[in-house]
Design a protein that fits this description.
The complex is a heterodimer. Chain A is mostly helical. Chain A has one domain. Helix content of chain A is 75%, strand content 0%. The two termini of chain A are 25 Å apart. Chain B is of the alpha/beta class. In chain B, the strands form three sheets. Chain B has a six-stranded mixed sheet with strand order 5-6-7-3-8-9, sandwiched between helices. Chain B has a four-stranded antiparallel sheet with strand order 11-12-10-13, with helices on both faces. In chain B, a hairpin with a 2-residue loop joins strand 11 and strand 12. The chains are: A mainly alpha, B alpha/beta. At the A-B interface, helix 1 and helix 6 of A face helix 1 and helix 3 of B.
Chain lengths: 272, 299
């Protein structure tokens, strides 16, 4: 099992995919975090004075800025995990993989573990980008960057955990939808289009909101405990978000269910 | 002393839905010589090999290495070296890393990667991404993967495809050397001429069934005759009743048997002949007759 783990780690690190994705994520998360920090910092006072404007207490600003790692960046570990499986299908490298390790379940288990670690690393990288750009801008605009607060570092830990779980979900999605193009289309369509619409749609009524909070993105936000999408109290109404650990369990359950479904359907199929 | 391992196919059968890809294939490949696994494209060669390697689940029957299925081998890559098609590479990974990943997975020493790269003549290109490799270089990398574990058994699917003349000569020498070292070598090909100079024994499949198994010499001297009768169907029925392989052509029926035997069968069945002609066929002709008409000839 150790050998299989090391081999899977080797596969991940010997193509350009991981650092290309990491670079794009740094740019995207860094830009978004910097933008939000600047926006809240500079406009916070003016917004606060106007009736009906979105209200955000000052102590919630730094978490919203830092949680852009998951709020906008979760798609990167998700795609990394998906591609870790579908690229093997696309380039027919499952053949040498299963020749070297005929116990297919071990290969999938090793991929899940390696990608969990990679997702956590993506979380750390994302935090460096979000804090590296967000904190100085917050400080410069006179808002508390809260880097010395233990709550901030607890938040950071939950962000790393969420990113790890998203990568694991990605492996599950890849094993369930082995066709690379189909898998990427599904991931992008769901995360960028279907889920945002569902989250907004379900937030209209109380009974739908109690279902909508179990959507993967909502669960992720619950786990992290902060998100630019939930900070203004859009949606939810009187329905509480999930507890952070409940959100984590929803994500974990999603990952386990899709991985097991993928194993039972496509992973054991004939490799022709 | 090297461990000697047979490859054993026992009543191996695979159906893909209604398609009978492989039907009741049984044969044994012994160490110490190169065995050819021949047949036109689509005859079931690759499917048989993939079942042997645990990549495809047989509908029934078994394919083992001395009685042990591939997935139960203790050290698979160190027991069986495999080169399937020349496209199983991530184009973004270098040849050295490609081999290193599987060496790690199979518990093979890292220095062996450099050795097989030297052995297959691609050491200079080893740190380039495989995406830029020619078909010939990919074949060599496939072979390097097969040799990674210094295995007792080699299973190579169309290894000569895409190699240049120099490469073809090199691989022929290599295969014979590996067999001379006491290894079991099974090489598939859809062209007899490709492996004619390398293999001693051949197993020929067509439409998923074995149509010939034996030495090349015996194959060459296999008598065939062309025979016809005004009542061709009656003749065909009689010949097939005598367990002969009959192929219908425009000129008549091609039968793998001596012409005297064919004449006797026709007489017993009471079928007057209009043609009976013994053929001195070349090896390639015998091969084509065996695999039947219209099955990917020269493809």
């Amino acid at each position: 099992m150790i050998a299989t783990l090391r081999a899977e780690l080797g596969k991940l690190l010997t193509t350009r995919l991981w650092w290309v994705l990491a670079l794009i994520m740094i740019g995207y998360v860094g830009f978004t975090a910097g933008l939000l920090a600047g926006l809240f910092g500079a406009l916070g006072d003016q917004l606060g004075g106007q009736a009906g404007a979105p209200q955000l207490p000052p102590e919630a600003i730094a978490p919203v800025v830092y949680s852009t790692v998951t709020a906008v960046g979760y798609v990167f570990p998700l795609i990394l995990g998906t591609l870790a499986i579908t690229s093997e299908v696309r380039y027919q490298t499952l053949t040498p993989t299963f020749l070297a390790q005929p116990k297919r379940g071990r290969v999938l288990a090793a991929k899940l573990m390696v990608l969990a670690a990679a997702g956590a690393v993506f979380g750390v990288i994302g935090l460096v980008a979000a804090m590296g750009l967000g904190a100085p801008i917050l400080t410069a605009t006179g808002t508390d960057a809260a880097l010395d607060a233990s709550d901030t570092w607890a938040l950071a830990g939950r962000i790393v955990l969420a990113m790890a779980l998203w990568a694991v979900v990605g492996v599950g999605v890849g094993s369930l939808i082995p066709n690379q193009i189909a898998a990427i289309v599904v991931v992008l369509a769901f995360t960028q289009f279907v889920e945002p619409i569902l989250r907004f749609g379900t937030s209209i009524w109380e009974w739908t909101a109690s279902v909508g909070r179990f959507l993967p993105g909502a669960a992720s936000d619950a786990l992290v405990g902060s998100s630019v999408f939930t900070a203004f109290g859009i949606g939810g109404g009187s329905v509480e978000m999930l507890e952070w650990w409940q959100g984590g369990l929803v994500l974990l359950a999603l990952a386990v269910v899709v991985a097991i479904a993928g194993y039972l359907t496509s992973w054991r199929r004939d490799i022709t | 002393m090297r461990t000697r391992t047979n490859i054993e196919f026992r009543n191996l059968t695979k159906n893909f839905g209604a398609v009978h890809a492989v039907s009741d294939v049984s044969f044994t490949v012994e160490p110490g010589r190169v065995t050819g696994f021949l047949g036109p494209n689509g005859a079931g060669k690759t499917t048989s090999l993939r079942m042997l390697l645990g990549l495809v689940r047989p509908t029934s029957g078994t394919a083992t290495f001395g009685g042990i299925e591939y997935r139960n081998l203790e050290r698979p890559l160190a027991t069986v070296g495999t080169a399937l098609e020349a496209s199983s590479f991530n184009p973004g990974r270098t040849a050295r890393n490609h081999l290193a990943v599987y060496a790690i997975a199979a518990g093979i020493a890292r220095k062996r990667v450099g050795e097989v790269l030297e052995l297959t003549g691609i050491a200079e290109a080893a740190d380039r991404r495989v995406g830029g490799y020619s078909l010939g270089m990919r074949q060599r990398l496939g072979l390097a993967f097969a040799l990674l574990g210094d295995p007792e058994v080699l299973v190579l699917d169309e290894p000569i495809n895409g190699l240049d003349p120099e490469g073809i000569r090199w691989i022929r020498g290599l295969l014979q050397q590996l067999a001379a070292e006491g290894r079991t070598v099974l090489v598939s090909s859809h062209l007899l001429s490709e492996v004619q100079q390398t293999v001693e024994r051949v197993v020929i499949v067509s439409h998923g069934r074995i149509v010939y198994e034996g030495t090349l010499d015996a194959l060459e001297s296999a008598a065939t005759a062309i025979v016809d009768a005004p009542d061709r169907d009656a003749l065909r029925t009689a010949l097939e009743a005598a367990q002969l392989v009959v192929t219908e052509t425009d000129a008549g029926l091609v039968v793998s048997a001596a012409s005297a035997d064919i004449g006797a069968i026709a007489q017993r069945a009471g079928v007057p002949l209009s043609l009976l002609h013994a053929q001195r066929a070349g090896l390639e002709d015998v091969f084509l007759q065996l695999v039947g008409p219209g099955t990917g000839v020269g493809a």
